[in-house]
Amino acid sequence: MSKIFGVYQGSFLPLEEIRVSPLSRAYTFSDSVYEVIPYFYGRPFCLIEHLERLSKSLEATKIYVDLNRVEDEINQLSHYIKNHENAYIYYQVTRGVDSIRSHQANHDELVPELFGYAVEIKTNTSPIQAKLCEDIRWMRCDVKSTSLLGNILMMNDAQESDCSEIIFYKDDFLCEGGASNVFLSVNGAILTPSLQSNILSGITRNFLIKSLTSKDIIVQETDCNISLLEEASTIWFTSSTRGILPIENLVNSNYHRDPKDPVFNQCKEIYEESFKNYFAT
Ligand code: PDD
User: I need a surface site. Which of 9, 33, 120, 244 has the fewest CB within 10 A?
Assistant: First the structure.
């Protein structure tokens, strides 16, 4: 594998040469927010939307950084991507490094830590196996924070059942995936859980909804009861690193995928066309 390059506090280095203090608040408290920006053939997909979401996460967590610097570093990192078919930039902003661990941040001494890297990835488009899990996370999952213990515990648990993703539900209603958003086709309709504080406003989710709406196809952003899972012809995930990914099997449910589901097939076609047009301009 070729060297992965990163940036930490303005220095661009191979990832393995970057050194971070154990008193970084990212390390002790997960006191940090992040973005994952996908690149295709060396060009970013929805960069502005990712920067806007980062700005909202920073606002929500009251971490103050110069967003022009962030954008500049992301652009510099993108030069390491070359023209690889598929890659992403991970970019994280941490509140800073404490002189000694302290829950209450000493704002006078803290300097935000800016860290990122660019890496090539391979994307799987084959339907996957997933698991339904209770949402045990904090109540601000609309903030793209690195505090992901709830996601990690459930995703590790699902891995033991050969599942590579999960669907979170709370009080009988679907929320989102462990690292993606969720859509369902049910009796000809397209549904996705409406955005609330326990759901991330996914950039891929929003791109898909916009693409479908531009073709007069309605997506119902609504409360999705878990009983819909057994009525669904297709359930699929959306995310920056996986695009649109259908679920073959949802292990602890009565979901049966219809591989010929015309609704899902049309959604996928429209998404792919919009995606192509995005890079054609
Ligand atoms: N995750 N919900 C969660 C909890 C996520 O972690 C992600 C993305 C999404 C989809 O958002 P988007 O379409 O903007 O990628 C929804 C990224 C890929 C990650 O953490 O690696």
Answer: 9
